[in-house]
Amino acid sequence: MQNDQSTPPVSRRELLRMIGVTAGSAAMYQAMSSLGLAAESPYKGPVDLQGAPRGASILILGAGMAGMTAAYELRNAGYKVQVLEYNGRAGGRNWSLRGGDVYTELGGATQQCGFDQDLYINPGPWRIPYHHAGMMHYAKTLKVPLEPFFQVNYNAYLHSTKAFGGKPQRYRHIKADYQGHVAELLAKATRTQGLDAKVTQEDQEVLLESLRQWGALDKNYAYVASDAGSDRRGYKKNPGGGLTARPIPSEPVALSDILKSGLWQGIPNGDTFDMQTALFQPVGGMGRIGEAFGRELGPLIQYNAKVVDISQDATGVTVSYVDSRTLGARQTARADWCLCTIPLPVLAQIPLNVGPRLAAAIAAVPYASAIKVGLQFKRRFWEEDEQIFGGITYTDLPITNIGYPNSGFQSGGKGVLLGAYIWGLNAMEFTAMPPEERVRKVLDYGSQIHPQYHQEFENGIAVAWHRSPFTMGCFGMWSDSSRAKHYDDLCAIDGRVALAGEHASFLGGWQEGAVTSSLDAIGRLHARAVQQGAQA
Amino acid sequence: MRAQFAWWTAITFVGMGALAYADDSSFTSTAGVGPLNGQQIYEHICQGCHMPGAQGAAGAGFYPKLAGDKKLISWEYVALTVLNGKNGMPPFGLPADQVLQLRTAHLSDQQVADVVNYVRSHFDNKYPATVTAKQVAALPHPESAAGPF
Q1: Helix (H, G, I), strand (E, B), or coil: what is residue B49?
Q2: Beta-strand runs (E) in A370-414
Q3: Which of A22, A462, A480, B90 has its CA 20 to 30 A from that of A503?
Q4: What ipTM goes with this model?
Q5: Do the beta carbons of residue A83 and residue A302 sit within 8 Å?
Q6: H or E stretch covering A417
Q7: Nearest CA among A478, A484, A488 for reference residue A524
Q8: Bigger pLDDT: A72 or B98?
Q9: pTM summary value
Q10: Which of B12, B19, B45, B50 to mutate to test the interface with A (most CBs of A within 10 A)?
């Protein structure tokens, strides 16, 4: 740290203030977030559960990522494992909808997925960051092949209905031009001593050169139509070969237009820790992981089992369940221990004898509203007409995201887009519509970005997570205050029962949260089982 | 088509501040629900879970059927549930600038009164629709999502 009185360094606070002045408070907030807080997976490699007491048993409620991670590890450690699952399939929110699949939501609306072979959407999670080491480990262990997920596509769009006449802008234009203009401004400030001499003379020279390179400025530190700028944002006419090859530079968008548009807010979409390259998706759909887990566990999973009562006593846990399709006679299962991964809105309604602190925690977590809509089109016009191969377009329309398929490029055939990924108030309103109206609305909105929509559309399917019979919401939403009050209680073992799932993690909605919370919980349950086994 | 989406054209951009959640976008709206009456609020928001006709639904868990629900005799119970949420149900009484962290929406005290009145006087419920914004304002609202830090 320098301490030269004539040239004091830029303080962190002043740097933030400067970002705030140039880019508005939201950019400042993002800068602040990136300086401090990122939640890395605590996954530490395969869990060590040696020394399981002979004959010890565990009942696992829910065959999602958390439940099946636990079932797999505890089975391998020698426990007697039984899993009860409400759905007729393994995976929970790890799920892909493919042609022929039938989905009935709460309220009875039934949709049949009309996608062609090999086309799908992931109604739930759709990406695995490289540092979600638990998910990466199980995909590898289960031999589920992965392929790249493009979080950032420089040729996809940022779109505002209120800017540029509603015309979507290429990400590369907004990013290159914002960066170029900001670099030019900061270079100007540096050269006119505008930094209040808080950067040393020596550093200023390096800073200037770095700004020139970072912002693609010319030799006068100006961001103008140039080869350097076009090398970032793309040319008006791209370089090629032969006599028609000569490139023509493109004209940058004015800084004021970018600032007013708000599109600069979309620039850091791939900069957050969770969204940084590389990200992956399982070949054939996220659901391949849940399916592989289900095959691996085989008869350990009892499907179509709706849990109606959980009761623990001094020696074990008894769970009552009925067939989720017929709601017939009660059956019971019993084990020494219970790992419960049932989503909290459901669990809060099941009789369960735990202490008041855990009970309060279970009731304290509202679940996010979210919608995903898949649309099948006759041709991959986003590739053929607009050269968008994978990645995501962001918009201020209620559809929020358009996700392009990250596989099957140039197949010449049909394609399925994620036509919407919505949350908050807009998601609530879409949830309140019948599924076919959701699809219709998504088509109407999306056609403002891709006018080909109506002509090329074939069929669609809409999943509203608050209508999901097995979760009643998308994922647990913790406020800072509720986390301070309830989170530790939610994760603590209560007698012979422990909870796990993304709701018991700092990775809300991420599968890695489910996996790591599960490993954490079974590690503690195992320690308790070993201790009791030693006493017995 | 109804005019229900008109206010979306007035959406404001808000930078996302949430940490580590699995959804992503720089662009989302914290604009309120706009000038909706009680029936419109029910049809745009509540019926997503409580269903058209307030019939409720059951799967692994259930959404209560509000039609003919005896608990509705207490307007305070209904209003407190709307304001603070219950179990997985999001709270709707947070200030507008705090809804993002919980991905929920803000209803004004008047709108809470309106939707409480609507539900208590429809769907076979025959209670008087006399709850006022002032009465709602006097009820406990959810504590700040950001906590006392």
Answers
A1: helix
A2: 370-377, 391-395, 401-404
A3: A462
A4: 0.87
A5: yes
A6: strand A415-423
A7: A488
A8: A72
A9: 0.89
A10: B19
